[in-house]
Every structure is written in C-alpha cells, then in structure tokens.
Amino acid sequence: MEKNNNLGTEPLGRLIIKLSLPTVAAQLVNLLYNIVDRIYVGRIPEVGSLALAGLGVTFPIIMLVSAFAMLAGMGASRASIAMGAGDYKKAEKYLGNSTLLLIIFSIILSVVFFITKDRILMIFGASENTLPYASDYISVYLVGTIFVQLTLGLNMFITNQGFSTTSMLTVCLGAVLNIVLDPVFIFLFDMGVKGAALATIISQCASCIWVLVFLTGKKTILKLRLKTMIPDLKIMVSIITLGVSPFVMQATECIIQLTFNKGMISYGNDMYVAIMSVLFSIMQLVWMPLSGFAQGVQPIIGYNYGAKKIDRVKKAFSIQFISSLIFSLAAVALVELFPGFFLGLFSNDPELISQGSSALRLFMAGMSLMGAQSACQQTFIALGEAKTSMFLACLRKIILLFPLAIIIPIITDLGVWGLFLAEPISDVTAVCVTVAMFAVRSRKLLK
Predict the structure, then answer these.
(1) What is the pTM of this model?
(2) DSSP 8-state assignment for residue 162
(3) Residue 1 — pLDDT band, cuts 50, 70, 90?
(4) What burial letters (b/e) apply to 247-277, b meaning 16+ CB within 10 Å?
(5) CA dist list (Å): 322 to 2, 182, 319, 326, 327
(6) Quick one: pLDDT at residue 123?
(7) How far apart are alpha carbons 342 and 12 in whole angstroms?
C-alpha cells in the first residue's frame, strides 16, 4: 500500500526515473529475445542469410502471440485505475481474469498454429529455400507459447504496482539465459534454428516461474488467487476493450510484416526478405525503449487520474512527451549516420550490408518523430480511452501503411523501394494526427 501510494505523492521527476529506467531496460532486454536469435542465426556458416530470412518469416506469428498477451495484459491498466480509486478487491479480479484469458489464448494459439504452420509461413513470405528454417524454428517455439503469454501479460501487473525493478529482473532473467543458451544449442549441439527456438522457450519458462512466484508471494500488493480467476464477464469485457488498442498495434505488425515479406519476394528475392528482417529488428531498437518509458509512466498517470490529481497527470505527460521525442530524434540520427554498423550487428554478409544501408536510411526516417506518437497514444491508454487509442493504433499501420505498401510500388514502379518509402510516409502522417487529437481530447479529460 505504501509503495503504491507513492505514485500519488512522490516528486514526479524522481518517480518517473525510478519507474521508467527499469521498464526501459526491461524492454531493451526483452528485445534481445527477438534479435539475439537473429544475430546468431545470421552467422550460421554457409546458410546464415537464408536462415535469417526464415526467422524473418516467423516473426509475424511471434508478434501475434505477443499481441494476445497485450490484449489480456491490459487488465493491469484497469487495475491501476482501480487501485487509485482505492478498490483493491476489484484490482485483484482484473489480475485473476487476465491470467485466465492468457491461459485460454495460449492453448488456442498453440493448437491453431501447429495445425496450419507451413501454410501460414508460405503466406507470410516463405519460399522453398527458407520454409525449412522457418518451420523448424516455429515448431519448437510454439511449445512454449503459454510461457510467453504468462510472462508478457502478468509482468505488466508487476510494473503497474510500482515494482518496476522486479519487472525488469523478470525480463533480464530470461534474456541472459537466452544469450547463454543460444550459442550452446545452435553451434555446440549443432541444432541450428531449432536450437535458437529451444533456447528462447527455456528462457521464457524461467521468466514465467519468476512472475508466478512473485504474484503469489508476500511482497506483491495484488495477489494472484484461484478465486479471482473465476470468470467475470464484465471484468473480461473491460480488459479486452482496453486491450484492443495495444493488441491492434501488435497484431498489425503481423499484417505489415506479411505484406512486406510478400512484397520483397514479389519485387526482389530472399536477400530482401533477410534485409527486411533486420530492418524490423532495428526499428524495434528505437520503438521498444519508447514503449518501456511509456510503461513506466503509465501507472503514474493512471493512478493519479483515478485519484483526481490532474496537475500530476499533466506534468507526468509533459515529461514523457519531451523525453520521448528527444530520444527518438537522437536514436534515428545515429541510424542515419551509421547504417552499416547497425546492419553489421545482424550479419557479416557484404551483399546484405551493401544493399541494406540505403534502405535502412529511408525506412527509419519517419521514426524520428515517433516519441510524440508513443507519448500521446500510451497516455490515452493510461486514461482509459480505449476507443481513441484503438483508432490511433489502426491509423498508422492499417489505415496508412498497409495500403501504401501495396499501392506505392505499383503506381510508382519503385518495386522494393516503394515498400521502404511507405513506412516514413505513414509514420509522419500518424504522428501529426495523433498529436492533434491528443491536444483536443486532453482538454476535456484533464479539466
């Protein structure tokens, strides 16, 4: 209780640093789950580029698994508002029903993808050359779906109670294990891409155990209990309604990567699929810290909004907006100046680095303004504005990027370069609309 009450009393600058640094670190470490596999796989002798392209084809499935974790995990934001209003019993119901949803989603996803994986991988851009690598990886990865779901979804409840250091340690535990186990399984045991997937699910299993032990232990404010996992339709609908926005953000990444992978095969070749895999990973290097910072600020905004402390909400948002925008501008500037360095992290193939440098510069240009997008959209979530946040989530990827990625290559005859150009156009447009909507809507919400 005392720790949670600090969300409404502690000086904001210090509080934001205390909560956001661990969540930023957690997101960066979590990113290692995605990129460490690619870094090692891209260096498998003789077949590294094909194996890297194969992993790129599996990424939409992995993103979809994460999307369902976000859908159920948004009960944490509802729980923050309930805690701010002093209703801890209701907050625990959000925790229990979110857990139940995560278990249900993981079972359904595992079964569906096991049955249809090869067909789906071909739809997602696999070729005859890359399908064996993609199928081997995802077959092993799907065994650990329940660990991934519970870790990602329930760790949000740890963060939103103010235990950001514990939340960070959840991710660090798994990521360190993944870094250690990847080379052992891939190279020492000569398991290739199957070894990369096995290392990932073992690491996620360790993180899952850590989360469950904490949420059933003595230190947590909200405790996971069997009685709170009894289905409550009203609570579940409330969770899903707010979770739709981050779900759409994640799920649309699946659709976008499907579109880009298919485009790279249609207008280019397997090398461009491998390049696209690396470009998406580098984009995440910018986006994930922004997301982590927003997760650190979210419980502060949500708690104080529930407690009617509007001045603290406004100040917290201002700090988040300015800090996020400065970060995105600086991070993208580094990528623009040193594209070869960032591409070289994932592959030592000279052809990939040569062809990918100009593509990376163009693809990442619009991300320089995404700090503003992240701050506004995530604050809508913290304020419980599910519909507005959902629209903004759809805007950037579904309404703008998806059709642009199809239309531009056709009407301009630019081929793969039309695909690369679609990203910055949609990013800049989405930022302008999001900031404008927040400026208007926040005046009413934060009177």
Answers:
(1) 0.72
(2) T
(3) very low
(4) bbbbbbbbbbbbbbbbbbbebbebbbbbbbb
(5) 29, 38, 6, 6, 9
(6) 82
(7) 35
